[in-house]
Amino acid sequence: MTTQRQYTLPNCNLIVEGMTTDANDPASPLSVVMNVECQLPGATDATLTGGREFLDHLVAAVSLYAQQLLSGVPQPIQAVAESPPMITMKPGEGFYHHLIVRDQAKDTTPTDAEAIAPLDVRLSTVQFHDLMEAIDQLLADTLTLPDLQPQFQSISRRQVKPSEPAAKRAAPAAIGAAALAAAGLAFFFVPPPEFEPSQSSPDSDTPAETTDTGLTSPPGTSAEDAITPETEDLPPTSEPGTDDTTSGDINPDEDAPEAGLEDSEATPSAADAAAAVDRLSSAPAITDAATLTLLRDDLRRTLANAWDADSRPEEDLEYRVAVAEDGDILGYKYQDSAALEAVDNTPLPALAFQPTDDTAPIPEAVAQFLIRFTPDGEVEVEPTGNSASSVREGAVDAPADSTTATPLADTAELSAIEEPIADRTTLEALVRTLRRDIADNLDPLSANQDLTYQVRLTADGEVVGYAPVDAESGLLAAETPLPELVVANGTEGEVADFRVVFTEDGVIQVSPWEGWPQ
Amino acid sequence: MPVDSPPLSSSPLVLDSLVTPELPASECPRRARMQIDLLLLAIEALDLGGGEAMLAAARDLSLNELVRGRVHLWLLRSTNPMRRYSQRRPLSLEEAKALVVIIANLARRLTVLTRQLLLGYQQLTEKQLSLEHHFRLADYLTRFRTHFRSRMNPRRAGVIAYSTDDKLDDLAIQLLEQLLLCSGVLGSQRLWSSLFDGEVL
Fold first, then answer.
1. Which of B177, B191, B200 sits opposite A156 (nearest CB)?
2. What pLDDT does B141 receive?
3. Which band of pLDDT confidence, cut at 50, 70 and 90, is reported for residue A218?
4. Nearest CB to A154: which of B178, B185, B196?
5. What crossing angle do the helices spanning B135-151 and B165-181 adopt, rounded to 10°?
6. Radius of gyration of chain B (CA)
7. What is the pLDDT of residues B29-60, one digit of tens each?
8. In A153-287, which ranges are E strands?
9. A201 and A263 in contact (C-beta within 8 Å)?
10. What is the distance between the alpha carbons of residues A146 and A497, in angstroms, rounded to a whole number?
11. Of A340, A464, B114, B135, which residue is the least packed, with the fewest Cβ within 10 Å?
């Protein structure tokens, strides 16, 4: 039998007519929907009518729109179906909503004129709520249309239109990629850093070694290699290979400059070394006159030996150098631009000590010297600053005015006694001879401590060389008779080393350097 | 026959109508947590005893297991990231369901008031009168603004967007409409489904 179900709310009247499944029970569910009427009093006078299709569209449209109102997420844009939905809902201005009904069933529409044009019903929120509530009651009513189930489906992520356009979202990634490309391009032109193992400059002459001077070179080595000028004040009169008891500046051997230059390619930049000098300015200064004098001689000899005389400068090159107590060149600084340009022609870069940590303060005492490379191939060394006065004091009165050059020898040459005198009797005789010779020529010494020398004698009792063992001895060597005793004849034949000690009390002690033979 | 063990605790029957959505993570998304808390805030602004009513509704709906008292309710609501004392704990889907059912339940009780306020708002807007002319509506708006400002962290970007009275009023009216929409017979399901718009896979 035909029955009618009505859902009434203040602003909505929804009437569903249909056939009940059980003809005898009017309360049984409807099997066929014959007519649906929807009146919206207050919103429109028109009665929306239709069949089951109209009802389905109405339910779908209202449900989707209600979900949009609740979530704020706009409905996904429906793919264009074969036919546009009969009923759509759109938000209006303010709190209004628009229910748009197309394709109104013509025969049942009271207003035929509106049949073709879509019917636009403006609903307030409350009116829309009543419409929705009527539909919900129909959906929830299991006794009317059990097959009409509420279909609630959240909008999936893919259907949500991104809040920002694709170009805007891609911008950060594009900027990042562009920045990376630019950085890559920029670094392409930067050369990769070359690893250059830094070698500390070997400075083979330590103070102990520099004081081990005075002995002539062993056979096989040219004499001039062992010769270093005593003072720069005297003209370079001595000829290499001749009598080395005369004093004077010795030109570095032009043919054998390789000694100590093997690592000259490890050339530090001038700036580094210059910085080192500045850094050294805060280091304590060496004030001991004897040490300063030795350091000065040592420095001059080292530089002269290491200087490649082929690269003589056009003019004087002046540098300020800082020397540690052990003779290492800790740093240097050019005095003018010419010196800066020619710094690579001097042995300074090769000899300068390479600190491992540029920033660490230098704890040891340093002496500063002004060195000058002259066009004549000479190396002049002068003390500077606070070192100068003390050096001059000590230097002038003791060794500087000596007329005797102090022959210097390397460690290798000292130990290279090829034919030592081993005969005890001969040694005893030599000891006696040496002590007598010294005593005969001895003047009172100004030393306030023992002076010790290593003296080399031939079997005939002739002194061929001597070397002070400490700084004080080296400084006061000129006061001893030793420089006068040196006879520079050939070094062929047997020689022996003796330890000569001038005690503070004026006693001369002479003993074989290696001890008495057993 | 005596029963030795208590019955297995299962989710309350009132939650069965809410279908668990397919989410990437089994906890409530950010927007859902904000929306639930804001709707509860609107209920509090509508009803002076709203807080107590929420607890009472939880008891009535036998949701005690999921909403265990005042502090727990506060913890659940503080999962809203806009909150001044926002909790880092996640809001589980079951807890969210319970809150949604409570919201729908309270919204149904407040339907009459909600309709009155919305109709008044509509009339005042059409006549271009200020909202203070409707005493009850102005009361609601004032209370909502106070609640919002006292509980939300003003430094959060989501809260800064509601810095002015007008913007807060718009939010309050919007929440009022949403409360009305979820006050129907299927209100809880509609609200639940809308919470995950744009979140489900």
1. B200
2. 92
3. very low
4. B196
5. 110
6. 18
7. 888 888 999 999 999 999 888 888 888 988 88
8. none
9. yes
10. 129
11. B135
